[in-house]
Design a protein that fits this description.
The protein has eleven helices and 20 strands. The protein is an alpha/beta fold. A hairpin with a 7-residue loop joins β16 and β17. The longest helix is centred in the middle third of the chain and has 18 residues, at 181-198. α5 packs across α6 (114-126). It folds into two domains: 22-235, TIM Barrel (Alpha-Beta Barrel); 249-377, Lyase, Ornithine Decarboxylase, Chain A, domain 1. The protein is elongated and about 75 Å long. Helices cover 28% and strands 24% of the residues.
Length: 378
């Protein structure tokens, strides 16, 4: 069953679920608008809105953004079902076989080469849409993924200019904006130098380069648009600025069993944890098949129960985890445990869980699987 076809909250059993707080999302949008200054906002909602729900997230953001960005044609088509007006830009390269459909819907593909542009123009001509078809011309200033190599950019853009296509925007990508300031500053300088050569070919075409981290750290370089993803979802890639935004996603689970484990008894696969004393444990129906990382096994992870941090014991299994509730007071079947989020005065952040599992918040959010129920709080 897809998330879109889940039964209404009143009939959906709450075993393992996610809550999406749209008030927090609206708060984050206001913060991003302030950070962006005069720049317009491109909201990145790829990967099912970073695991938060593509169409639901976009509906809340729509009035405050100029452009939506997704990864693929399929995501763009899904978004267009509910977002009827705003431009939708594709951040990933498209298959040649997808060009006609992209042109038909008026989506904006990322173009790195003259060959791609010619093929896309051919598809647009076939549909008699060439005069209204737009592209995003991308430059590779250090990411090594998409984009024209700087030495070739002028020649490619000059060729594109002769095709029956319009250039919606020029962009590049900053791969280390949150971790390597000198490299990022060098990229921005390289990009500025390139723009001086390219802009005379297509004067006035909008530019977008800054992602969430770069918007926070290099506000003087916002240009015409900023591309914001993670920050909208309430996680700051710049850790000391986390207080500016509010987490949008909380991940919860119900207790399915409470039991005693005697001293010396092994817990979970491989008995990698041996009870040092008699323990009271709770079983939660959340495992790596739900997206709760197996890499958390033995890493000191915890969940919240009764507002107390309860350690995760032994290995994370496919469908369940075992947590120590010896110091959590009275816990009963059906009680709510928090895997990511706040309970009382305590909080387990997505960044904490990601760090312990050796990954990043983006990965954690996108890894939540389809069997986890989603509830949107408007």
């Amino acid at each position: 069953m897809s998330r879109k076809s889940l039964p209404p909250p009143s009939s959906q059993p709450r075993r393992c679920w996610v809550e999406i707080d749209h008030a927090a999302l609206r708060h984050n949008l206001k913060i991003v608008r302030k950070l962006a200054g005069r720049a317009d906002l491109m909201a990145v909602v790829k990967a099912n809105g970073y695991g938060h729900g593509l169409n639901e997230i976009a509906a809340t953001l729509s009035d405050g953004v100029a452009v939506f960005a997704v990864a693929s044609l399929g995501e763009a088509i899904q978004l267009r079902q509910t977002e009827k007006k705003k431009p939708i830009l594709l951040l990933s390269a498209a298959l040649h076989s997808e060009y006609e459909e992209i042109a038909r819907h008026g989506f904006i593909p990322a173009i790195s080469s003259l060959e791609e542009a010619r093929r896309f123009a051919k598809a647009a001509r076939k549909l008699k849409k060439a005069d209204t078809t737009q592209i995003n011309f991308t430059l590779d200033t250090g990411m090594g993924r998409l984009g024209a190599i700087p030495d070739q950019a002028f020649e490619i853009l000059n060729g594109i200019r002769k095709l029956p296509l319009s250039v919606h925007s020029i962009s590049t990508h900053l791969p280390s904006a949150d971790s390597d300031t000198p490299f990022t500053k060098a990229q921005l300088a390289k990009f500025d130098a390139l723009l001086k050569k390219l802009h005379p070919l297509i004067p006035g075409v909008p530019v977008h380069v800054l992602n969430s981290a770069a918007t926070m750290l290099h506000p003087s370089k916002t240009r015409d648009l900023v591309r914001i993803g993670l920050l909208l979802y309430g996680v700051s890639p710049v850790r000391n600025m986390q207080k500016l935004v509010k987490p949008v996603l909380s991940w919860k689970s119900a207790v399915t069993l409470v039991r005693q484990i005697p001293k010396g008894h092994g817990i979970s696969y491989g008995s990698t944890f041996i009870a040092p004393r008699t323990l009271t444990v709770a079983i939660l129906p959340a495992g790596y098949a739900d997206g709760y990382p197996r890499q958390l096994s033995g890493k000191g992870a915890a969940v919240l129960l009764n507002g107390k941090r309860c350690p995760v014991l032994g290995r994370v299994t496919m469908d369940q985890i075992i947590v120590d509730i010896s110091r959590a007071g009275r816990v009963k079947v059906g009680d709510e445990a928090v895997l990511v989020g706040r309970q009382g005065s305590k909080e387990i952040t997505a960044s904490e869980v990601a760090d312990l599992s050796g990954t990043i918040p983006w990965h954690l959010f996108c890894g939540i699987t389809a069997r986890v129920a989603y509830f949107h709080k408007r």
